[in-house]
Every structure is written in structure tokens, then in C-alpha cells.
């Protein structure tokens, strides 16, 4: 679907009001064949339009086909690479022959404009829907503007300047053109300022956008803008201030293990999360994060396609990522497993259910040590070496494990039930630290980082002389991998080329990453639809 045409937006009001509600705060109601006049006289229309904004935002964050498994979030960075042998080429991870006609660029663009479209429908029709209280109306419009700002933030960082479409489009339009990146950022900040003035400080329903969620997103937007030619040091100052507000209101969970425990999802640290749950209707596609960074472990003796470990066929964590954790850093054990236990007896009986099936030592074992045990031992240098069972294999990511969720392929409904935390206090500490560093206040930056590291069980404090942007990026990897957009982190700090070529084995092999890759190509379909009024980024 060519989303820039917005051919679906009118349908949302005429016949498509069958939106799935977000669990815990809106009840689903099914409408069919509703005219605009009928919809406008029913106050439930407003609730359904708002529910759809939440739903499409959530679904476009978790729903992927096999070849798009979080590829715009972390693939092609220092900590995440493709899950294959270190040969050949890849467009997104290796930056080889990047093509504007590639499906992934079109889908990501379309997904963000679909969210913007849904937000515009609610914003433009809020005043015409009868029976809605002013408070409900104001709050809902603020929530829609929050999601619109979030999507424009993603678009601006990935594509640069993009068309600003701020109203519902009810007829086919093809003469769009790109606004400047500065104009897009101005609109993002305007939307967030409006949202901050409108949404509830403490929503009565869990999962709704709060003022602190707006502050969190604003802190990240301003932190990012501050690095740009049209940004200023005041953006760093305001980003730090907003992050401090979050820190003062949301206490860190005592241990990292408790933070990621599936039984402790709604904890003191969460600022905003997408909700899924056990209801198969309201859950939609399901939270797919439990499938991240996992290999074909079930091909090894004693392993099955059960739900104890679950599975993904997507990107792999780089050896560099695993090297970032010291022995005392408790985040390592809470984030990935070096021991994988058998789920059944092996055919030859040498491995019994519950025994070790695969082991990833932190320090390499000798050949004689490996030969002395019945299970597979995979040394750090062999993560991307074919062992005759699988092509690649690495410590299994468990940060988002969701026990009881059945095995599915990446292009099937993932059925994950746990909340998808999108904003939490742990990241606010790191946003503040980065802003303080750029303001020349390394002492405050070190203080924020030490708080995070102390929670991780690290007893030795760092000093201000230890803090530079690379240290902060390392800390963001230890704390936030799988949660925050790593590609945007590296882009923001101008470290994409340096760190990816240094630590991503596939990208280093091809050595094709250049300055032009700080922006994705504009999808060729959008250029063709507009007869060239939308122009291409330099170098593509």
C-alpha cells in the first residue's frame, strides 16, 4: 500500500470502525457499515478512533515478516549483525548496494505514515463527534499528537526531511513534497508540547499516555536535535531536565533480574509500555520481543521446538556485545544464557532431559576439555563458525522470555503476551548522562551512570575522567539492547560508521558503510507516485 496517498483514511470513518481496543482501558465494540453522520452522533466513535491510534502504533512496533525482524532498530550496528556466516553481502546490515526499491524501506515509511494517518483522523474529527466531554476530547487529541510526533521522529531520523501531513486526507493526493528536517523537528516539538498540556498526569487506565511519557519522548527528541546544525546547547539542557523529572518520579527496580522478570512487568520503572495480554483478540499480533537474537538451538541433541526457550530467525548479537560485560555485571546473566539445558533425552542417550545441551564459555575451552564432555561447547571465536549442526550459534538472549508462548515462525503471529516496555527510568538516567556530558558536566554524567551500574551489581564507581560518548554507548548496550533503537543511538552520536565497522563482522567484511548511510533511501514507490515531487536522498 502506498501510504503517502492516504486512500484508507476516509474508510476509517465510513466503514472501518472495527478497531481492536487496547487492553485495560478501552472495551472493544464492533461497528459495520457506519455512515459519517451516524459515526459523528455516537460518542463511542471517538473512543474507537483513539483505540485505533494505540493499536496501529503497537502493531507497527511488534509485527514483522521474516526478512524485516527489527531491521530498522538494531541491524547493521556494533551490537547486532545478521544471523549467518561471515560471507556474502547484505543490504541493510552490510550497507552493500542499498536500493530505494527494497521492500523494507517502503514498509517502514508506510508504517509510520499509517500511524500519522490514524492520528490525523482523530485530531480532525474530534470536534464533530457528539457527546464527547471536553476533557476526554482534549486528552485524546493530546494522545494522538504524542503518537504522531513519535512517528515523525522515526521518519526524520531514518529518512531526513519528509512530507509533513497534519490533516486527514480524504481524496487521492500525489503532489507531496519533503519538508526540511528542521521543519519536521519543529512540528515534533510542537506536537509534544500540545500533548504535554493535554494528556493526563496520572491516567486512571494503565497503558495510556501520561505527561511523563511525553516528557520522556521529548527528552530523547531534544537530545537528538541538539547534535544537529539547527539544534543548540539549550536542547541538551532541556533534555537533561526532562530526564531528571522522570528519574525523580520513577524509582529503579532493585535488581536487573527483577526488572526483566516476566512476573514483574508493571513495575516502578515503567513510564510507557504497549500492552498485549492473554486475550487473543485484543493481543493482536502479540509481543514479538521474546523471539529476538536466537539461533536454531533445537537442532542440537536433547533440544526440541518447545516453548522453554522459544525462537527467532532474525539478527544475531555480535561477539563485541558479549565482551561488554564484566564478571560482576549482573545484567549479563539476566539478559542471556550461556548454558542451554536439554528438553528431552538425546537419541543416543548421552544427554538426558535437564542436562547441559549447549554451553558457551566466556573464556575459550581447550580441544581436550571440549572432547571430555557430551554436550556442545562453543567458544567465543566460533559463534559464526559452522559446527556441522548450525551455521551460527551464540549465548541465547533471554531478556524478554515469555514462558508458555508456543513456537511460531517470524512471519506468523508471535502470540507474545508480556508488556512491551518502550520507556523506563533506566534509559532516562542514560539520556541525562549523555546530555550532561555534552554540556561539559562529566561529573553529573558519571553520577547517573554509576546509579545504573550499581543496580547491576558493579561495586567500583567510575569517575568523570572515564566518561566519554563511547562509554555511554557501551552502557546503553549493556542496559538497553532490544529496548532502544541502537541504529538511532549510533546515528545521533555520529558513531555509526566507526563502531559498526569496528565491531560488526559482516559489515567489516564488506567495508561499504559511508556517510550517505546516515540516512536511508526514500522509497522509490513514493518518488514514483508523486512524479518526483518527493526527492531522493543524496547518494541513492
Walk me through this protein's architecture.
The longest helix has 26 residues, at 134-159. The chain has 540 residues and is mainly α. It is globular, with a radius of gyration of 24 Å. The chain is built from 20 helices and nine strands. It has helices at residues 9-14, 36-40, 44-62, 91-94, 103-125, 134-159, 181-198, 211-226, 233-249, 256-260, 319-323, 331-335, 367-371, 425-438, 442-455, 469-480, 486-492, 496-503, 505-510, 524-529, and strands spanning 80-81, 270-274, 316-317, 336-337, 339-341, 356-359, 376-377, 396-397, 420-424. Helix content is 41%, strand content 5%.
Main features:
9 strands; 20 helices; disordered N terminus; 3-stranded mixed β-sheet; mainly alpha
SSE map:
Layout: H1 9-14, H2 36-40, H3 44-62, E1 80-81, H4 91-94, H5 103-125, H6 134-159, H7 181-198, H8 211-226, H9 233-249, H10 256-260, E2 270-274, E3 316-317, H11 319-323, H12 331-335, E4 336-337, E5 339-341, E6 356-359, H13 367-371, E7 376-377, E8 396-397, E9 420-424, H14 425-438, H15 442-455, H16 469-480, H17 486-492, H18 496-503, H19 505-510, H20 524-529
Helix pairs in contact: 3-5, 3-6, 5-6, 6-7, 7-8, 8-9, 8-14, 9-14, 14-15, 14-16
Sheet with the most strands: spatial strand order: 5-6-7
State mean pLDDT (0 to 100 scale). 91
Choose one word for the global shape: globular
Low-confidence stretches: 1-32
**Radius of gyration using CA atoms only:** 24 Å
Oligomeric state of shown chains? single chain
By secondary-structure content and strand pairing, the structural class works out as mainly alpha
User: What is the ordering of alpha helices and beta strands?
Assistant: HHHEHHHHHHHEEHHEEEHEEEHHHHHHH
Query: What is the count of helical runs?
Result: 20
Strand tally is 9
State the helicity in percent bands: 40-55%
Percent range for β-strand residues: 5-15%
The end-to-end span amounts to: 22 Å
Give a short account of the largest sheet.
Answer: 3 strands, mixed
